[in-house]
């Protein structure tokens, strides 16, 4: 796993601008702490920061291929290709010779063999750039589900790109401007494909590639979620899901560095940990190493709420004992969550306000930091809820049939609110409701359907698609930024495209055949789990309930805004900020009760520390 950056300009000699390219690449140092490199051509500069995972000695990047003393192509690559050994064997049969054991060289040779069609052959998570020196064109490519990020900024005669916005912003040609659409992306809990927060900047859409030539920029889709008739019966479907998961986890355990799992004690992470434990034991390489996060004193003083019925720790321990894992709990306190260096690191890693999820940002950052001390790669459970139907809004008829994103309906929306401290004038300009409605209908228009589907089946297909393409991305962004800020690679087995293609087309009645959330997944892996974990209801990532944390937020907001007297750039309402700062915290702090504090704080810090200019 790595960080990439680069610059292509057809109107200038970029070999005179290597200092700028090195500065852009240096912003990715935390993503790639082990090595760095810069490759140059007259009109192209490719930068790379490496986190060494496969072929530690031979995988230096950027990597180029030559023939008869001339460069054919060069690549800078972030990610992992889980089928690189099969691809390598096929390429050898075509006459290619390899000088390393890395998946990067397989990617490069695959491009030379198959051109842009090589994208369809890759199984993995990746973001990469290929400069074809023969045709003088740039290819930007992103994985099917958008696990790895890739941003770009078109210029008059080329473009800039990077794994994170900071790499692009480091170039002096890019202003730090944010328009209304950028703010809407920050403030609403909907991830719009391709849109970035900073004006003029974009993300490569998942499953797409960008080709840049002298004649201009074109976009191509190489993969999308498709609707297909599901003909397997229930037993076959369960067995197929189990077989896919066993193969996927086995592939994703591949590394030349220590690998572990992130274990919450929920069904998803427990399934991954149990499958990993089984594979490692079979190979004589066990036990599996697992990590969980908890808050000091949380078990004794835990208070159930609408979505969290019990703390995670007992369930994680039960699973670890059941599979014989070497399990570690990372215990955090509120002082660590609000520490200045931690909050500064979270913002710097994200490049935009981490507007939702509250304390889950610093706690995930701290968890990843602790894990990185003993492991370089971690397997995680993102994607199962969206694919198998795990969230409560899948089972709430009012949410399912609402004319908007189901997680933004009454009952769930309060977890993704937080706009109450914004100035009324700004809220009027943003018109979040209209923006949301437009994005919702855009998403619906993309959903693949089958002509004979009944109304409920079609609607559940739509809800699943919305979750996979508009909600899941927010979780993947958070996990990528917080893990890579610590040089930790996180892999997500549930997002293997083969599993996505299969389970997306399983009828809803079969996914919940037992009347419960994720019934199909539970049936596929239940024999590997202790009863307490197998039967546990869906519980989100843990959040602190410590009122001291909430009071610290009020204190910080008061300091940054002068108690409401110094609102930043007209973003906040002074009177509301003052009331929020002066309102005492209760005996138990709930995430949805402090969302507006978190939002106001992060917005204020972002505008100040990033010197953002409002562009409207």
Characterise the protein shown here.
The protein is α/β, with parallel strands linked by helices. Helices cover about 40% and strands about 15% of the residues. The chain has 24 helices and 19 strands. Strands 2-3-1-9-8-11 form a six-stranded antiparallel beta sheet. A hairpin with a 2-residue loop joins strand 8 (about 150-155) and strand 9. The radius of gyration is 24 Å and the shape is globular. The model has no long low-confidence stretch (mean pLDDT about 95).
Helix tally equals 24
Distance between the termini: 37 Å
Specify the structural class: alpha/beta
The helix content, as a percent range, equals 25-40%
Biggest sheet character: 6 strands, antiparallel
Q: For the CA atoms, what is the radius of gyration?
A: 24 Å
Quantity of strands, as a count: 19
Largest sheet: spatial strand order: 2-3-1-9-8-11
Model regions low in confidence, pLDDT < 50 over at least 5 residues:
none
Nearest-integer average pLDDT: 94
Quick one: overall form?
Answer: globular
GO molecular function, one term: asparagine synthase (glutamine-hydrolyzing) activity
Protein name: asparagine synthase (glutamine-hydrolyzing)
EC number: 6.3.5.4
Catalytic activity: L-aspartate + L-glutamine + ATP + H2O = L-asparagine + L-glutamate + AMP + diphosphate + H(+)
């Amino acid at each position: 796993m790595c960080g990439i950056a680069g610059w292509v300009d057809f109107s200038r000699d970029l070999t005179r601008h290597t200092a700028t390219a090195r500065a852009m690449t240096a912003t990715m140092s935390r993503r790639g702490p082990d090595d760095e490199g810069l490759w140059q051509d007259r009109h192209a500069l490719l930068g790379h920061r490496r986190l060494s995972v496969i072929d530690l000695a031979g995988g230096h990047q950027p990597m180029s291929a030559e023939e008869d003393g001339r460069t054919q192509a060069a690549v800078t690559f972030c990610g992992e290709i889980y089928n690189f050994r099969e691809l390598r064997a096929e390429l050898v049969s075509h006459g290619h010779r390899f000088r390393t054991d890395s998946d990067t060289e397989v990617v490069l040779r695959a491009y030379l063999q198959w051109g842009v069609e090589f994208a369809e052959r890759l199984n993995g998570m990746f973001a990469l750039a290929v400069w074809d020196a023969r045709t003088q064109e740039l290819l930007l490519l992103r994985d099917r589900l958008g696990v790895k990020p890739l941003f770009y900024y078109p210029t008059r005669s080329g473009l800039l790109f990077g794994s994170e916005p900071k790499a692009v912003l480091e170039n002096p040609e890019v202003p730090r401007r944010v328009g209304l659409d950028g703010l809407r992306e920050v403030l609403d809990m909907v991830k719009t494909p391709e849109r970035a927060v900073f004006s003029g900047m974009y993300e490569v859409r998942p499953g797409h590639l960008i080709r840049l030539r002298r004649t201009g920029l074109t976009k191509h889709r190489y993969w999308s979620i498709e609707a297909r008739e599901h003909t397997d019966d229930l037993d076959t479907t369960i067995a197929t899901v189990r077989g896919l998961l066993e193969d996927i986890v086995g592939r994703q355990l591949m590394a030349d560095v220590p690998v572990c799992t992130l274990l919450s004690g929920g069904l998803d992470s427990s399934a991954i940990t149990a499958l990993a434990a089984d594979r490692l034991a079979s190979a004589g390489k066990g036990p599996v190493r697992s990590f969980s996060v908890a808050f000091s004193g949380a078990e004794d003083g835990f208070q159930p709420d609408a979505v969290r019925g019990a703390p995670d720790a007992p369930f994680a321990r039960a699973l670890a004992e059941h599979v014989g894992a070497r399990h570690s709990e990372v215990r955090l306190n509120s002082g660590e969550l609000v520490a200045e260096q931690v909050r500064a690191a979270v913002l710097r890693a994200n490049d935009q306000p981490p507007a939702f999820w509250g304390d889950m940002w610093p706690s995930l950052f701290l968890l990843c930091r602790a894990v990185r001390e003993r492991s370089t790669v971690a397997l995680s459970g993102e994607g199962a809820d969206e694919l198998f139907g795990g969230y409560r809004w899948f089972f709430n008829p009012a949410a399912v049939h609402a004319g908007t994103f189901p997680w933004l309906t009454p009952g769930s929306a309060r977890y993704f609110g937080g706009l109450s401290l914004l100035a009324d004038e700004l809220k009027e300009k943003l018109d979040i409701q209209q923006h949301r409605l437009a994005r919702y209908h855009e998403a619906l228009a993309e959903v693949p359907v089958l002509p004979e589907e009944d109304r409920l089946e079609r609607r559940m297909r739509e809800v699943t698609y919305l979750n996979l393409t508009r909600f899941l991305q927010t979780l993947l962004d958070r996990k990528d930024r917080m893990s890579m800020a610590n040089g930790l690679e996180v892999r997500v087995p549930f997002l293997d495209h083969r599993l996505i293609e299969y389970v997306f087309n399983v009828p809803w009645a079969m996914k919940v055949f037992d009347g419960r959330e994720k019934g199909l997944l539970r049936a596929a892996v239940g024999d590997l789990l202790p009863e307490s974990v197998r039967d546990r209801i869906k519980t989100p990532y843990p959040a602190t309930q410590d009122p001291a944390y909430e009071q610290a937020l009020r204190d910080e907001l008061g300091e940054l805004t002068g108690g409401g007297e110094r609102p930043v750039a007209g973003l906040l309402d002074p009177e509301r900020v003052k009331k929020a700062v002066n309102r005492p915290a209760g005996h138990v702090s709930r995430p949805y009760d402090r969302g507006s504090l978190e939002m106001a704080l992060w917005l204020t810090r972002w505008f100040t520390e990033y010197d953002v200019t409002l562009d409207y």
